[in-house]
Amino acid sequence: MTARSRVDAGAGRIDAGPAGGDGPPVGASIAVVGAGGVGGHLGGRLAAAGHDVRFLARGTTLAALRRTGLRVTGDAGDWVAPALRASDDPHDLGPVDYVLLCVKTPHLPPALDALDPLVGTDTAVVTVQNGVEAPEQVAARLGRARVLPGLARVVATPVAPGEVRYHGPPGALGFAEWDGGASDRVFRLRGLLRGAGVDVLEPADIWAALWAKFLLVVPVGSLGAATGGATVGELRSRPGTRRMLVTGMREIYETGIALGIALPPDAPDTAVALMDRQPADSTTSLQRDILAGRLSEFDAWTGAVVRLAGRAGRPAPLHEMLHELLATRISRTVGQK
Ligand SMILES: NC(=O)C1=CN([C@@H]2O[C@H](COP(=O)(O)OP(=O)(O)OC[C@H]3O[C@@H](n4cnc5c(N)ncnc54)[C@H](OP(=O)(O)O)[C@@H]3O)[C@@H](O)[C@H]2O)C=CC1
Ligand SMILES: CC(C)(CO)C(=O)C(=O)O
Predict the structure, then answer these.
(1) Which of 155, 277, 293, 316 could bridge 337 with an S-S bond, Cβ 3.0-4.6 Å?
(2) Distance of CA 38 to CAs 161, 171, 191, Å?
(3) How far apart are the first and last CA of the chain?
């Protein structure tokens, strides 16, 4: 049977996947804030597995979730979850056991303003944002004890209201307590995800894992935008841009080390190797958003490198230059499209 040869009439995964987990996969309520690429993908799969998933959404996405639910489609299988519990008012949805906070970084402050009704005494909030600052932003509002810093490993995009398409493998989520450890609530959520067939990453150090992804995606995204849209394939094959990528990765690596992040010494080499394995036509959301004149995660990616390097007292001249070029471009285009 091929991955997409059978479609369930009701909620459910279309092809078989791994089940099981570390904890009892029943009885937890999960709010997904932002039903886009990551939120739609994770929430759709959890809902398709029959879990109590509630979506804080808006606009045409909200209407589609209520009317027809979510379809998650991709190379390794499809999942469908019919009409879902969704609202643009968090009071309709909470409190819940877990919040998967899946908005892009520029939308974090208003999303955090809306979080209170979702958060009860034992609620854990999982972050999925690229970059390394989102957990601290959530903790500044709710306290560190509520935050599970997380890392999404997926390439997923909303292709229509209520439909998310992923590329490559079907995706994975990693998260941990603030101190990097596991706990009952971490085991329980792992169990829920695994029961829904979602791979769970268990990095030895969630902060090092976040930084390892950060040092890969930011140089690729920033250079992709600064070059007017060069793909990963183009950037890595031209000797000049390849050198810049490696320099950028090293700037972020040295910054992380100076800030006490336990990145392994081979982290930049690992990032280069991962980049070399990416499909040649890959681009990042950062460059796509900047070049389309949309609000982007520029401040959480390129901006954060400059900010954190400054805090660490480390030079980051390549990122400073890229930041200035892109900030100028953004100031001339965002809001005009
Ligand atoms: N997509 C991917 O493959 C990956 C993304 N990430 C990270 O995950 C985060 C989310 O990215 P992604 O899923 O791509 O983003 P998307 O833009 O696809 O999805 C975000 C969703 O959140 C909605 N939203 C924003 N604010 C609110 C709000 N206040 N209330 C309700 N809904 C809201 C948006 O609605 P609207 O469209 O109306 O603005 C949108 O549907 C980013 O930080 C990204 O870096 C990490 C790994 C992979
Ligand atoms: C680069 C990628 C696909 C990595 O997961 C990503 O998260 C993004 O483009 O926003």
Answers:
(1) 293
(2) 14, 9, 19
(3) 45
ipTM of the complex in this document: 0.97
Please state whether the peptide bond connecting residue 95 to the residue before it is cis, i.e. omega within 30 degrees of 0.
yes
Which ligand 1 atom is the nearest neighbour of the CA of 128?
8
Q: Which two tokens stand for residue 91?
A: 């009071």
From the CB of 129, is ligand 2 less than 6 Å away?
Answer: no
Separation of 70 CA from ligand 1 center, angstroms? Answer: 15
Using DSSP, state whether 285 is helix, strand or coil. helix
Domain with 153 in it: what CATH number? Answer: 3.40.50.720
Tokens 């609620």 correspond to 123
Q: Is residue 176 part of a domain?
A: yes
User: Of the candidates 203, 235, 253, which is a domain's last residue?
Assistant: 203
Domain of 128, in residue numbers: 12-203
Ligand 2, residues 128, 130, 297: which to mutate, most atoms within 8 A of Cβ? 130
For residues 269 and 249, membership in a common domain is answered with yes
- Residues 249 and 201: their CA atoms lie apart, in Å, by 23
Residue 190 CA to ligand 1 centre (angstroms): 22
Q: Other C-beta atoms within 10 Å of 83: how many?
A: 14
Q: Is the distance from CB of 93 to CB of 87 less than 8 angstroms?
A: yes
Amino acid identity of residue 74, one-letter, is G
- pLDDT-based confidence at residue 335 (cuts at 50, 70, 90): low
Which residue's CA lies nearest to atom 1 of ligand 2?
284
User: Is residue 155 in contact with ligand 2, taking CB distance under 6 Å?
Assistant: yes
Looking at the CA of residue 114, tell me the nearest atom of ligand 1: 29
